[in-house]
Fold these 2 entries.
Entry 1:
Amino acid sequence: MNLVHIATGDLFRQALEQRTELGIQAKDYMEKGTLVPDEITIRMVMERISAPDSETGVILDGFPRNLEQVKALDKNLAEMAKEIDKVVYIKVSEEELLNRLSGRWICRNCQTPYHAVNSPPAVQGKCDECGGELYQRPDDTVETIKKRLQVYFAQTAPLIDHYAQAGKLLEVDGEGNVDEVSRKIVTALSRG
Ligand code: AMP
C-alpha cells in the first residue's frame, strides 16, 4: 500500500539499542510492560510523522495506546491538514495472544517476526529475509505479557469504542495464520 510503517515499540527498541536519551527514558517502562509516558511517546511519533517519507501516508502500529495519545494525535494531524482514515482492530483471544508472543522470535537487524511453531525460519536462529540474528524480546515472558495485556485492557481497549463511534473502525478476525489475516485486513481496507 506504499505506506511507511511506524511502530512505536520498534522506535523505542531501536533507541535503546543505540543507547540514546530516548531509549534510556523508555527502558524501565518497556521492561515492566507499562506505557512510556505520553509526552515522550507523542513527541517521538510526531517527529517521525513529520519526516518527508511520511508525506504520502503512514500506518501507525502500537500507537495511539490511550485516549490522551488519541487527542494529541488528532490535534497534531489537524494542524498538518491530515487525519486518521481507518483503524484496524485485529481481534485475537487472550490465549492465542499469549501463545503468539511467548513463541515469537524477531530479527535483530530488520525486525521481521517469526514464531517457533507457527512460522519458523528456514534456518533456526537466522532471518530468512536478511540472515540477521533472531532474538526473543525480554518483555515476551509470560509474566510481562500478562502485565501488557492488563495495560491493554485498562488503557487501550477503550479506543475500540472511540473509533467505532467515529466510523473509522474495521474489525478483523485475527485468529488465522499470517496469510489469512493479511488477506482479511486488505479486504476490510478495500471495502472501507
Ligand atoms: P510493542 O512493540 O508495541 O509491544 O511495545 C513495546 C513497549 O514499548 C510497550 O510495552 C511500551 O512500554 C512501549 N510502547 C510502545 N508503544 C507505546 C505507546 N504508544 N505508548 C506508550 N508506550 C509504548
Note: The mean pLDDT is 96.
Entry 2:
Amino acid sequence: MKIIEMHLLPVKLQLKNTFVSNHETVSRREVSIIGLKNDTGIWGYGELEAFSTPYYTPETQRSARLIIKETLGPLLKNVQINQPEEITNIFSEIAGNQMAKAAIETAVWDLFAKIQKKSLAVLIAQKIHTKSRRNVPVGISIGAKSSFAELKNAVISANYQGYQRIKIKVTSVEELNLIKKILQVFPDSTFMIDANSSFSLKIASKLAEITAPNLVMIEQPLRTTDFVDHSILQARITTRLCLDENIFSLDDVRTAYTLKSAQAINLKLARVGGIANALAIINFCWEHGLLVWCGGMLEAGIGRATNLAVASLLGLDFPGDISASSRYYSKDVITSEFMLARGMLSVPLGLGIGVTLTPKYQQALQDTTSFL
Ligand code: OSB
Ligand code: MG
C-alpha cells in the first residue's frame, strides 16, 4: 500500500468542564484530525494530541503540525508500506516528536485494519497474541479541586455514573489533605492520585502517610524526566508509584524498571509515538510484572476510539482514563457517542477505529489541500 494524500485539520473543542492540573487549566482543547488516503481510495484517521502549550510535554499543536507537514509526511511519500509497524522504523531517524509521529502512525493502523476488513481492536490483539474484549472497564480523572465540598461532589457523581476507578488530580499539599479525607469517606471506591509533577522529595513523608487500602497508586508525584528521585520515593512509601510524564519510550520504561522508579505505567499512545511502541511497552511490562494501563489526554472522538482499541486488550485490565464522551466536549468530531454502561465502554465493532467523522468535519478535512 502507498499513501497518496495526507490532510490535517485543526479543530477547537469546548470542554464542558474546565480541567485543572498542575501543568495548566484547560477549557478549550485544540486537536488536529489527520486523514490519510491510500492508493485504493481508503481513508485512515488519526488525532494529533499535543496541547496548545508546551507544559505537559514539549510538543504543541503548532510545532507538531509543522513537523508532520515538513518532516514526517515527506518520509512516507511514494513509500510502499506492507505492515503498520514499518512507520515507527521509518520515523526513527527523527528525534523526539512522539505526538506528531503518533498522529500519522495511528492513522496508518486504522488504514491497515480497514484494508484487512477488521476492527483496529482485533488487529492490535492479533499483533500481541491476545484477544480483544468487547467491553472495557474504565475510570475517570477528576481535575484538581480546592474545596472539600467540590471534590466530594465530583466523587459522588463519578460513583453514581459507575466509573470503576477514580483518579484525583493534586497540585498542592493542601489538596493532598482533602484527598486523605475523601479516601476515608468513600472506603468502597478505588482511588488514585495524579500529581502531574507538583511535588518534591521534601514532602516524601507526607506522601508516605497517605497510604490507604483504597488508594491503588500515586501517579507522577515528582519532576518530569526524574527517575532517580522517583526511585528514592518508591523505596520509602508502600503505595505503588506510576509514571506518566517521564515515559516517552520503551527505553524510559526499562529505566523505570531497572531503577525501581515505579511499579506502574500510564501508557499514552501519543506520548510514546504510537501503537507499535505502545505494544512493545505492554509486552515489556507484562514480562516484568509492571502494571500497565491506558491513559488519556482529553482526546476527541478519533483519539478516544483509538485508545479504546488498545485498552480492549485482554490483560490490560486495570481501568484506564477513558471516560464517556459526555464527560468531555459539548460537540465532538464523530457521529457516535461512547456511553458508560455498568462502568464499561463498548469497543466499536466497525472496521478500523469504528467511528466516523461528522459530515461537517469530514468535509472540512477533505477540503484542505493534501500536503504530501
Ligand atoms: O496526567 O494523565 C494526565 C489529561 C491531560 C493531560 C494529562 C493527563 C490528563 C488526564 C485526563 O488525567 C485523562 C482523560 O483524558 O480523561
Ligand atoms: Mg498523569
Note: The first helix runs from residue 61 to 75.
